[in-house]
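Please, structure for the following, as tokens.
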Amino acid sequence: REETGAKEKETVTVRQSVALCEGERARLCLVSEKNQNQIIMIRKWWRTKWALGQILRLRGRGFRSDAALEAISKAGEERVKNLTLYNYPSPSGSLSALFAHLFHFHLNLPCLLLPFSSVEPLRVEDLCIEGLERVYLLDFLGPKGFADALSRRSSCEVIGFDHRKSVLGQITSDHPDKVTFYVDLEKSSSTAAYEYFSSKLVDLNSPDGNVASLLKPEVEDRMKMVLKYIEDMDLRRWSLPDINAFRIGLREWRSKLNCITNPYIYKQLLEINSVDLIAKGNSDISSRQSAANKLLDKVFRVRLGRGFYGECLGVRADGNSYVSDEIGKQLSARSAAAGLRPIGAVIYMQRNNLKMCLRSTDSATDTSEIAKAYGGGGSASSSSFIIRMDEYNQWLSVNASRWSKGMMHHFVKY
């Protein structure tokens, strides 16, 4: 009896241990499922950060680079009193830098101009050079407390220009007296900088006593039109004719906007022309649409989240990811016309990963809820995520190819 009782106790103990292990395993699985998306996002963040670091080291394009620090050191030795930092790679910031450059050029005043980016940015201690009297922040106000710290440590005047609503929280009543911010939500930074430096130049006049103009007459009208288009983009109005073509035509300028790597930036910006940019943009739109049309002939049906989020139209775009936005938006319209969810899915391989981009032209549809459920992200109208191949195969409609062939004629008019 004693042996039997001991064995029964042992059996109960073993069963309890097994139950505890199974319960712990279930708990861990639950925690794992809850944290899976967070873990994926953290890994993606670290991979992105590591990749950026590699790019900066290999290409020497960091904005706190040896070249930038050397230029600051040289400016200190030469007792340069004026420093201009502009938002890079913002077209508005670069045009503002052009106007600052022309202002100091007309008055024969030495001025150091440098790009400022959130990627490895310059620090306050880097900029505290001897004899500094004035710092301009063009199209940005810097991180919180940046302007205040710079003014206090260098005893210099800091003048900042911005048009974003998000910076209003930085403007408080306890700023140093030498810090001035020009923030106009109805005017782009480049327009505000142009008006500021033009007005200031007229007030100060040129050294020979003649009133100088910031821009030559033959350049002024052309530049004002460019500023109107930039402002239409910056304020997200999108109201001017061919504004989308202008935006696309302006893309190729981004690689030229670093004054450290491109010493001809100001000469090039003086030649910028809205007519040429629109023509370039329309040409790019036409070629991209041609590439998109070839892919749109191979549309198929996608069961979003295995059907949990409904169905939409999709297409594989391997090697043509640059047209994913155009294709996605057109697929969104076609999906709606076919009675599906107004979403377009564009799928392609990216660095050995299968990526799915979702687009929607319907304001009531949120694509990001799907992307976030699979470790991705984005906005309501535009989102993306990495999807496993086995999971992706579960999203394909069983009758996808047959449906595609049977319904393709329905979309010709779209």
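The longest strand covers residues 344-350. The chain has two domains: 66-281, 297-411.
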